[in-house]
Design brief:
Elements: H1 2-8, H2 12-25, H3 30-43, H4 50-59, H5 64-77, H6 80-93, H7 99-110, H8 114-128, H9 134-143, H10 147-160, H11 165-172, H12 180-188, E1 192-194, H13 224-231, H14 233-237, E2 245-246, E3 252-254
Helix pairs in contact: 1-2, 2-3, 3-5, 4-5, 5-6, 5-7, 6-7, 7-8, 8-9, 9-10, 10-12
């Protein structure tokens, strides 16, 4: 409509007037609320978004998209107390949703409060259980430079859903040198089950990352400097995690060539 055309032209004030007119006709219109959010942000007037958003939530108290707009708005305004209160209202309206913890955490993270964001996700994981927030916990731990925690959460997430292996690989490949031992410890902690009859005796020595190098026996390298280029591929970064499954006791099973330490 005309509001979107005005927005594309950078005529944010006029576009805002059209979006407000759309909200007068339908106070719960998500496209209009999102449009108003987009045009008010560059104008520095996000505070004027709160009233129509809260009016919409009184009519649709479980609408996750509208709740998310409110959380983002409070984050942009730097009103973290109001953000927390809004999140608690969302939880009261829908206590089974993982979206509230996800949106809350990332809104807080936008303000640089990574530890608080992690606590929010941990609270959600504790309350909801299951696997809904494991990926978010892993990603947030990496963003906050808690790489050992990131590895632990990625391990759990990939056991629950092996299709997350690529995301886990991309995340953990960024581990700084000083945190790699913690990541390896998390990835290799028991229980681990081998997909083959015995652990592998061949491993990459790191001379040509990403390519097969000389074979060594025993499988665990003596030099820590050589250990990470080999072991960054286990059990997540190389292809081995694609074969990971959960045993009856929640153990992980890796294909034999993928684990080298």
């Amino acid at each position: 409509g005309q509001a979107f055309d005005l927005e594309r032209q950078g005529r944010f004030v006029e576009a805002g007037e059209r979006f407000r007119a759309a909200l007068d006709a339908d106070p719960t219109s998500v496209p209009a609320l999102l449009g108003l959010e987009r045009v008010l942000t560059p104008l520095g007037r996000v505070d004027s978004l709160i009233v129509p958003v809260q009016a919409a939530l009184r009519l649709q108290p479980t609408n996750r998209l509208i709740h998310a707009i409110e959380l983002r708005s409070w984050a942009v305004l730097g009103r973290l107390d109001s953000l927390r209160a809004a999140a608690r209202r969302w939880i009261a309206a829908d206590s089974t949703s993982a979206d509230v913890y996800r949106e809350w955490a990332y809104a807080v993270a936008q303000r640089g409060s990574f530890d608080e964001a992690q606590h929010v996700l941990e609270e959600g994981q504790q309350r909801l259980g299951g696997e809904q927030l494991l990926k978010d916990l892993a990603q947030m731990a990496g963003i906050g430079s808690h790489w050992g925690d990131a590895a632990r959460y990625w391990r759990r997430a990939v056991v629950a859903n092996p299709e997350l292996s690529v995301a886990a690989s991309m995340n953990l490949e960024r581990t700084p040198a000083g945190d790699r031992d913690a990541v390896l410890e998390a990835l290799l902690r028991p229980p681990i089950r081998w997909g083959a009859a015995s652990p592998p005796t061949c491993w990459w020595d790191g001379t040509a990352p990403g390519k097969a190098g000389p074979c060594w026996t025993p499988p665990c390298p003596r030099s820590r400097a050589r250990r990470w280029p080999c072991c960054s591929g286990l059990p997540i970064v190389r292809a081995s995690i694609a074969a990971a499954t959960a045993s009856g006791r929640g153990a992980m099973r890796w294909n034999a060539w993928g684990t080298c330490c």
